Amino acid sequence: MPDFSRPLHDTWLLAGARTPWVDYCGALAAVSPTDLGIHAARAAIERSGMAPAAIGASVVASMAHADFDAYVLPRHVGLYAGLDIGAPAIGVQRICGSGFEVLRQAADQIALGYADAVLAVGTESMSRNPICAYTHRSGFRLGAPVEFKDFLWEALDDPAARVSMIQTAENLARQHGIRREAVDAYAARSFERALHAQAQGWFAEEIAPVTAQRFEREGYHDRGLRLPRKVTTVAQDTHPKPSPVEVLAGLRTVYDGGVQTAGNSAALVDGAAAMVVGSGAVMRDGGRPPLARLAGAAAAGVPPEIMGIGPVPAIRQLLAATGLSMADIALVEINEAQGAQVLACAQVLELDPARLNVNGGSIALGHPLAATGLRLTLTAALELQRRGERYAIVSACVGGGQGMALLIENPNFCKA
Predict the structure, then answer these.
(1) In three state form, how does the secondary structure of the chain look?
(2) CA–CA separation, 201 vs 199, rounded Å?
(3) Which of 376, 377, 397, 369 is nearest to 124 (CA)?
(4) What pTM does this model have?
(5) Is 25 an active-site residue?
(6) Catalytic site residue 345?
(7) Distance (Å, rounded) from C-alpha 262 to C-alpha 184?
(8) Are 171 and 338 in contact (CB under 8 A)?
(9) What is the pLDDT of residues 360-395, one digit of tens each?
């Protein structure tokens, strides 16, 4: 059994919030990821009941340099969320695992005594990924190629293995005998489950609706968040839509003879999520029930050409470190980067489909890279409480050949 005397095991997810996940080039397309992060951070802090000045640090993730002030994005999120001027900020990056990494680093800071409470934020504007050039600082020579490229598109390739992220899923499909029909059936289930959760109001528990607003910090210039004309509020995820197998089966595969399509891969969306992480002392003094206990974290490397299998060693490492078995885990979230990738992980781990991504996943909802891990953790924590179950594992594959996983525990669980 886990050694609950270790400092990590007295780390608590006090509260969390996220923006809606909004389709690429949709209502949030013009919003800076800094402002998306500030909005989610303020909502999470408000739900925690803590005074912002009592939070000792911020750990923030954002993958793309989607604004000119991206260098100071982590610091500005903390400042405009109301943290004390002396509370430091750091930016972290583990691609699709970044939302988990901010939670692990927050827990590390608490365990090491650097802070009693930490703000963890992931924010991403896929719409504002730049068109960029890295080779023209010295100007343009006559006749030389002009090398402006789409940052978002180019980032899908791994030059080490010379594969795209979609090709890594195709590699797994071939290795594990996963057919197109199974991938489409899985994607249809993701959409169906997400639509059900949305209709039940479960995602509304996570979401802090976005409105046009101003972020003020005394002594500093105001920031603002604007929405398109005639849009006053964005309160709901926009990508989930009825997507039966028959419709998905009609989509063209990305590669000839492959299994992955635009319909059974993660959707491009914009969004941000945040959590307040605190020590046991902060949790007990706060007077409000926490979301979950952060009971463990693990990361592992895998070959880049099959990066999608990354959750498997990360989950196994996590179980070994905590003394649990898969039978102890009521819910498992594996980020749906691609349908074949999730199915390969589920096959190797022998997962019960009834426990896997029970409210749908990134195929239906979308995947704002740095924010997804926080959304998965928030979704799983609330679902554990609804079901009265004890443990959940949340995990993701990571481009370049990694996987990351967290173990969370329902604080309200009572043994029979």
Answers:
(1) CCCCCCHHHHEEEEEEEECCCEECCCCCCCCCHHHHHHHHHHHHHHHHCCCHHHCCEEEEECCCCCCCCHHHHHHHHHHHCCCCCCCCEEEECCHHHHHHHHHHHHHHHHHCCCCCEEEEEEEECCCCCCEECCCCCCCCCCCCCCCCEEHHHHCCEECCCCEEHHHHHHHHHHHHCCCHHHHHHHHHHHHHHHHHHHHHCHHHHHECCEECEEECCCCCCCEEECCCCCCCEECCCCCCCCCCHHHHCCCCECCCCCCCECCCECCCEEEEEEEEEEEHHHHHHHCCCCCEEEEEEEEEECCHHHHHHCHHHHHHHHHHHHCCCHHHEEEEEECCCEHHHHHHHHHHHCCCHHHECECECHHHHCCCHHHHHHHHHHHHHHHHHHHCCCEEEEEEEECCCEEEEEEEECCCCCCC
(2) 5
(3) 369
(4) 0.95
(5) no
(6) no
(7) 11
(8) no
(9) 999 999 999 999 999 999 999 999 999 999 999 999
**Of the residues 25, 132, 397, 414, which is catalytic?**
397
Contact partners, residue 274, CB within 8 Å, separation at least 6: 16, 17, 18, 37, 40, 41, 43, 44, 45, 119, 120, 121, 122, 374
Q: Single out the residue of 46, 14, 37 nearest to residue 99, CA to CA.
A: 37
Residue 247 has pLDDT above 60, yes or no: yes
Q: Which one of 96, 132, 345, 414 is the catalytic residue?
A: 96
Residue-wise pLDDT tens digits, 119-170: 999 999 999 999 999 999 999 989 989 999 999 989 889 999 999 999 999 9
Locate 129 and state its tokens.
């990924």
Give residue for tokens 């525990």.
409
Tokens, residue 92: 């972290």
Q: Report CA-CA distances (Å) from 286 to 201, 275, 279, 413.
A: 27, 15, 11, 19
Tokens of 186: 């899985």
Q: What is the pLDDT of residues 39-63, one digit of tens each?
A: 999 999 999 999 999 999 999 999 9
Distance CA 415, CA 102 (A): 31
* Backbone angle region of 379, left / alpha / beta, with phi > 0 → left and psi within -120 to 50 → alpha: alpha
